[in-house]
Structure to design on (97 residues):
């Protein structure tokens, strides 16, 4: 298996202030549908009962796919919504065990 085809698995933890939930969800609605175009998949999406914490497990076929997703202009154009939400994000690279 070449380096480019090693899957990338990410755990995203988003902590969203109550006043930012609407903007955060608008951001997600815009960017999550792009994942399949970059060989990405949202494997799991969890949300706390108050909507202020979300955890996503996302997998990409390769690092190249992940980087292409991150740099896609349709995604980066939505960054203002993420900024406006004031969400604090933690992205962790994970491995299956």
């Amino acid at each position: 298996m070449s380096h480019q085809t090693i899957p990338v698995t990410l755990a995203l933890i988003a902590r969203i202030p109550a006043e930012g939930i609407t903007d955060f969800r608008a951001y997600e609605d815009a960017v999550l549908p792009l994942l399949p175009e970059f060989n990405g998949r949202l494997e799991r999406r969890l949300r706390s009962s108050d909507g202020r914490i979300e955890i996503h497990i996302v997998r990409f076929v390769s690092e190249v796919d992940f980087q292409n997703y991150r740099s896609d202009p349709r995604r980066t154009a939505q960054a203002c919504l993420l900024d406006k939400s004031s969400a604090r994000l933690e992205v962790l690279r994970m491995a299956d065990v």
User: Anything to note?
Assistant: The chain has four helices and four strands. Helices lie at 21-31, 63-71, 73-76, 79-85.
